[in-house]
């Protein structure tokens, strides 16, 4: 019997037991779909996070006190405006801007409710470090810093919630910062697309918040903040040199403040946005791989289902096997007949599972706010694996059929 005849016989057998064959395929379909969906969503989330970091700024550095060192004292070891000014001058060829950052929580009464706001005190050049997309007005100026002006740059959504469709520029925004109520004059409106992190936080039930920018001198005065900063941010000119520049800045600060690494004590640490993105990529990659491996277990279960059904098929067709062997069918042709049937079941299940998995990944990606990225290599591996499952779990039933004694098979009722 040639391969085409073997294929035809296998298909006729599958078609004769359509429901049983479909239920057998179902395990493979679910397994393949699960693997492709998980891997596609994992890769899609990594790509989306990469895009988020591009917007956030992959050329950012964060320099801070090392709070794991018990000897660190912010009043003694913290950063001053003079420190940041000197660093900006010394590393002028390597960095674009440097700014401290002081954060506080506040509340703003809107037309309908009270909204939580993150107040961020920064230098006038912070919009170079973080992409603040101004759509109206201006950002903070040096004069605002020196005069400790009570001015603010707010988000478009907050502006709409407070002032509706009115032009908010020049208007007063009443803000409650730690129980202290102050009026801030609005000088600018910015618009920022919702990030995947914010979408995930809202999905988990977190209350969305918006960021309000004001001069760091103003915020320090309002919240009675220490005179020194525990951290500052830097924007580098060349992203590929971020780690090198980070280490140079940290070493410079140690020498400037006479802090050595005697006995392994680290007073200052730095981290780059690139490092954070890479660490997050590694975590997401591991999670996707582990989840994919767990989902792949269902393929083994599906393979066991194929073996079970093929053993039933061999038992049901014992007399047929006996007759075929009696009229000259070889052991090889019997083996191939059942092996091809097993491969067809797993192959069709693999293709159907792939299509189903791609569809589920697309729908789930839309719901989660990003597109699932289907890697063709993953699809090929998944389908090949499903065919391999069919071969592996089909060998025993096929071999059992091929080794039947024709006389005993003809006697079978």
UniProtKB/TrEMBL annotation:
Transmembrane segments: 21-42, 282-313, 334-364, 376-396
A GO term for molecular function: ATP binding
Top enzyme category: hydrolase
Location of the protein in the cell: Cell membrane
Pfam family, one: MacB_PCD
Keyword terms of this UniProt record: ATP-binding, Cell membrane, Hydrolase, Membrane, Nucleotide-binding, Transmembrane, Transmembrane helix
Domain named ABC3 transporter permease C-terminal: residues: 293-406
GO CC aspect terms: plasma membrane
Topological type in the membrane: Multi-pass membrane protein
Highest rank taxon of the organism: Bacteria
EC number from the UniProt entry: 3.6.3.-
Family to which the UniProt record says this protein belongs: Belongs to the ABC-4 integral membrane protein family.
Descriptive protein name: Macrolide export ATP-binding/permease protein MacB
Organism listed in the record: Peptoclostridium litorale DSM 5388
Gene for this chain: macB
